[in-house]
Amino acid sequence: MAHLDVSNVTKRYGDTVAVDDVSFAAEPGRILGLLGPNGAGKTTTIRMITYIAVPDVGTVHYDGRTVGPWSQQRMGYLPEESGLYKRLGVKEQLVYLGTLKGLTRAKAAERADYWLDRFDATDWADMKTEELSKGMQQKIQFIATLLHDPSLLIFDEPFSGLDPINSDLLRDIILELRRDDRTILFASHRMEQVEQLCDDICLMANGEVVLQGALRDIKERFGKNTLVLEFDGPDSFIDELEGAGLVRVNTRSAHRAELTLADDTDARTVLDVALDRTDELYRYERVAPPLNEIFVDVVGEAEAERMQQQSVANTA
Amino acid sequence: MKMSLHKIWLIVRSEYWRRVRSTAFILATLLVPFGFILVAAAPAALGYLAQQSSTKTVAVVDQTGRLADSLAAASDAQLIFRPVDRPPDSVRAAVRAGTYDGYLLLSDSVFTGQGGATYYSTQGGALTDQLQIEDRVDRVVRQQRLRAADATKSVLAILQSDTNVKTRTLREDGAGADHTLAYTIIGYAMAFVIYFAVFVYGQYVMQGVIEEKSNRVVEIIVSSVRPFELLMGKVLGIGAMGLTQMVVWAALVMGGLAGAAPLIALFLDPSSLGVAPDASSQAMAEAAGLSIPTIPFDLIIWFILFFLGGFLLYASLFAAVGSAVEQQQDAQNLLLPVMTPLILPILFLTFILESPDATISVVLSLIPFFSPILMMLRAAITTVPVWEMAAAFGLLAATFLGMIWLAGRIYRVGILSYGKTPSLREIARWVTYR
User: Chain B residue closest to A70 (CA)?
Assistant: First the structure.
């Protein structure tokens, strides 16, 4: 299985610089999370990897060669918000998409049957695509992405629109594909999904890579500056700590809070205040920051805020 | 430009099949010719039925005393003249009572040529009735006048024979081919068929592109094939669908007419056409101007070539427009530069019909955006030198190549651009994107 190398890639549309000197690499057997808010340049970057767009500057190599029609045949791409031909039958659609990837009709039909069975969807084979629910269509698209047994897989927001059960099924299959030593690229702005799935991350903002590396290394680099508290009783102490500039509040509910320590705050101070002010303290833990906080740290409050809002809008 | 013919073929096949087997396509393909034949045949059929249903009996009040018998002798199945010798008042009453369908008053002045024949009826008289009565009275009066003037039998014979003018055009092959009118109709028909076909199938292409884009399936497809391959596959697939539809239509209409010509001939009166009463139905149909002249083979070939050229040229532009929008409604403004050159030649049709060989006609019919319509019209109605046809087609083909390249540049950017509908200026900028 093969590496993907994106080197110093720049892409402009008119006066807008969509992607500016971006470099990263993806390894077989690992999942690379491509992160960033909409407009960060994720989709443009993916389009250059999938040879839908060509970089103005820089190169994209897969398996040591510049990407092109040849690499399209070895790659499966599930675009964000993508759809299917509404009036085509499910299986006919899969076979057509498979032949466009270089499969023979017979081979495509055989693999379509295998995957339909795997997704418990054999009954849908002869249905028209428009008769399926959104979630069912998403599954069919996922099958279309895998049909030709690609060695490079690119998923752009694959979980949007899926219910929890199907999300789990999809996640299991992605992890299974990773065990098969495929190279997997996973684009999302949902930090918790990325944290669950990815081995490496590449954080983008405004067309540039702002942070990249193995997830574990990055977390270590940012240290254990985050506190998780679970308690009973009044929570006004949190406001006071924040007001005094000792901590920053990441998330907060009636009985739980996740706080980031300000640079010179002693973790002990927070513990003392919490013990003093709450009725009961169930949990006090010092942990590595969640990806969200790392992102805030790197790109700044405003940009992170924008992404939070998108994330909320998309889940709603 | 590198492209995979295999991929294009896969797309053509899918685009073609998915449309050709749809219920809408099958219904349209089968029903439209029926509608066409129905519309064409309806007036004739209705006229015939109206004629059949009524035998008119006309009372003749002859004040000259010399015409009634000859008129009575000129009666036939549809029109019976019955001389009556009663005062006009009682005849009028009889007509109102329904004994007669009307009455004809012939006064002395018939012979002096100052009118003198008046037809009264309760229904105001249909046009065909009036014409038939006029025709008979004319003939009978003429005979009487000639007889009064002591004309010889040979003169009578000459005057009574109908003259049917047959038109013949001199063509290069020397044969006296005829049917000026028919060729005008064929020319018009070919021009309009190309116009409508390019228009309708071009819209199909645009719709297909918009659907693919708004369904968001296009990004999946272009991660497997080049956008240009998708564009070509779609245009060719829909073109093949259009050609299929037109061939089926042509076959059904030809078959229908071939079956209908003898049928129509049955309704025609041989004597009124100036052919022998026992003439074959084909001869009669021809005399009535109903026959389809055999369309020269080379004209058919040119028709197919110019249809394909025109379709490909315009379809690529329709596709480019479709790629720039997300909904059909948004396409209106952008369609202007595509529709204008398509509609313009329709305005020149009459002019070219009147002077197909004028320099300006030749020039107009060589312009690539017009030639599919105007050159076909000229080719049908006049003798166009082969070099002119070839030049027009060559220019058309070259323009098509240029336009499909341009359309491809627009298309590859357009299909992935969502949001505000771009202006023409923005679209022009897309062409320069790498």
Answer: B224
